Amino acid sequence: MSLGRIAALALVSSLVACGTGDDPPQNPALECTPSCDTNARCVVEGDAASCVCDDGFHGDGTSCVDVDECTTGGATCSPNASCTNLPGSYECICDEGFVGDGQECILASPCADGTATCSPDAICEIHASGYECICKPGFTGDGESCEDIDECATQTDQCSPHASCTNTVGGHECACLEGFAGDGLVCEDVDECAEGIASCGAFASCVNTLGSFECVCDEGFAREGDACVDVDECADGSADCAAEAICTNTSGSYDCSCPAGYSGNGRHCADVDECLRPLDHCSPYASCANLPGSHTCTCIEGYRGDGIDCVDIDECAEETHDCDPNASCTNRQGSFRCACDPGYEGDGRSCSADLCTLHEISCPSPNAACAMDEGQAVCACFPGYVGDGTICNDVDECADGSAGCAEDATCTNTDGSFQCACDAGLTGDGFVCCEADRGWNGCGECIGDTATGDSDLDGVCDSDDQCLGDDGDPSCPELPFRGTTAGGNDRGWFHCAPGSYATGLEVRYIAGKLLGARLICKDANGAETGRVGHYGSGSPDTPGPSTDLDCDDPLHPDDRLMGQIFTNEEYVHAAGAICGGAAPPYRFIEPPATTVPGAITRYNPCVGAGKVVTGVHIQAGWWVDAIQLGCTDPLSPAP
């Protein structure tokens, strides 16, 4: 049975049920008389009851006749349907080639009736000319035959570049790769480091990467398997230490340290010249030779030992001297002295018989003495006399012009000599006479300023103010006070014992200031006779140890103190020594460096060649405010 027929019958059934005469009257007291037709119903309106034919019938109610809707035009069948009248109703049946409920009939479709030859994976579409089979999305083909499209293989999927594509029948699925999160179409990187997902071991840092992460070993560590282990930069040579440095490996790094004998930060190490600093530990009677990172001590001539401890060699006792057989040997520190025996003359290493002494020869003239001349004893006139030794007459140097007095001096002959005296208003030794406001430097020259010794008038008494134009021979006039006499108290003069002179300075410092100084005094034989000078009262701080500035060190045993070097601004900050012998060159023991801004180094040498220091004048409070040295002619060496 067609769908149209079924629908029409349902409508008829409804109409029949509605028109039965079995419905009870609305007002039980009223009844339709005569009785209603079987296709009618009794309807009560007010106090009246009447029979009304059911739908699909017409009549007076007591007699009802079926209405033929097919012929009366009351049927609503499709133009493409046939109408069949039924009691109280009608039926619409779609014509052949059409389908529908009879009221609506459309052209019959192969898509609907299953006669189309479309693939199960295709959509059947009706057209005026027939039907068309179209493969569903995700399939490809002619509609009758459709094959699944592998969007993953053909790269026609919509997945994120960071997603995996899985083909399905008629479609595909996108899933974010590990390390990404999202719906597969959009995938965002997961920062495992920030979210704490990553698990890096000790000595490593987490670095996020696209879709993953890396565990990067900290500096100073390297990956070994899954762990970061310390790199021994010292062993693999990657440490940036100096070639001389000691490399010590540490966890993740290394340390460089300069070894003993070098100074620096380990990256750079410089050799320490122990010989220029009080680090050599050599004996005072040894010479120091610097070596890379070290030094050697070698006992100087006249001493023996390992250089750290050197003892004097007694050449006389060991008979290693070279004195003449007619000379006596006297041992001295580091050396020995040869002296010809009585009756012999010479330097001690070569002695010849002194006939004058052996035979006690006396000369007739009181102004002559016996002397050896080419092995012969002869009488020779003293200097200032002329004759054959038997008769010696005075030479009048003033008369013969040999005196050499200055033009502004008066020459006075004396027995065996003469005297030169500068004229009134002049100063000098008679050989050189200077104007009174200039002065004489004791070396045969006039100087510019008697108060400062500034011979070149540059305002400073320094190593350019010398006697003979030689910078190695600095000498000024009588030494003035150095420092300031405005502070402290005048402590007076301190002199070496008679027959002694200074061979060095003993100095002591406190808080970067000179606390005081003492002269180291010795006699002509080199034996110390005492130390004279003054130390200030200092401060609550304990002063450091004293330091000896020895001019007569083992390398220069005959040198003496011949002046002072000092640094000052208002008071004396530090002191040094000018050392020398009977003739240039002179040596300088420089004062230690001072950190006082503006401190100036000045040289303060004795007047005249060969003069030595015998006294010191000090003005001091807590420390030395001013210092002055006293000079004198050198002592004759001991016999």
Search tags:
single chain; 9 helices; mainly beta; disordered N terminus; 4-stranded antiparallel β-sheet; about 650 residues
Q: Helices and strands: which structural class?
A: mainly beta
Backbone shape: rod-shaped
Span of the ends, CA to CA: 168 Å
- Continuous helix count: 9
Helical fraction equals under 10%
- Biggest sheet, strands in spatial order? 41-52-51-42
Low-confidence sequence ranges: 1-22, 441-445, 447-453, 455-478
Q: What does this protein structure show overall?
A:
With 639 residues, the protein is mostly beta strands. The N terminus is likely disordered. Strand 37 and strand 38 form a beta hairpin. The strands form 23 sheets. A 4-stranded antiparallel β-sheet has the order 41-52-51-42, with no helix packed on it. It has a 4-stranded antiparallel β-sheet with strand order 45-44-43-46, with no helix packed on it. Strands 49-48-47-50 form a 4-stranded antiparallel β-sheet, with no helix packed on it. It is 8% helix and 42% strand.
Could you give a quick summary of the protein structure above?
The chain has 639 residues and is mainly beta.
Topology:
Layout: H1 3-18, E1 40-45, E2 48-53, E3 57-59, E4 64-66, H2 69-72, E5 81-86, E6 89-94, E7 98-100, E8 105-107, H3 110-113, E9 122-127, E10 130-135, E11 139-141, E12 146-148, H4 151-154, E13 163-168, E14 171-176, E15 180-182, E16 187-189, H5 192-195, E17 204-209, E18 212-217, E19 221-224, E20 227-230, H6 233-236, E21 246-250, E22 253-257, E23 262-264, E24 269-271, E25 286-291, E26 294-299, E27 303-305, E28 310-312, H7 315-318, E29 327-332, E30 335-340, E31 344-346, E32 351-353, H8 355-358, E33 368-373, E34 376-381, E35 385-387, E36 392-394, H9 397-400, E37 409-414, E38 417-422, E39 426-428, E40 433-435, E41 482-483, E42 489-495, E43 500-510, E44 513-523, E45 528-535, E46 547-550, E47 560-568, E48 572-580, E49 587-589, E50 600-605, E51 612-620, E52 624-632
Antiparallel strand pairs: 1-2, 3-4, 5-6, 7-8, 9-10, 11-12, 13-14, 15-16, 17-18, 19-20, 21-22, 23-24, 25-26, 27-28, 29-30, 31-32, 33-34, 35-36, 37-38, 39-40, 41-52, 42-51, 43-44, 43-46, 44-45, 47-48, 47-50, 48-49, 51-52
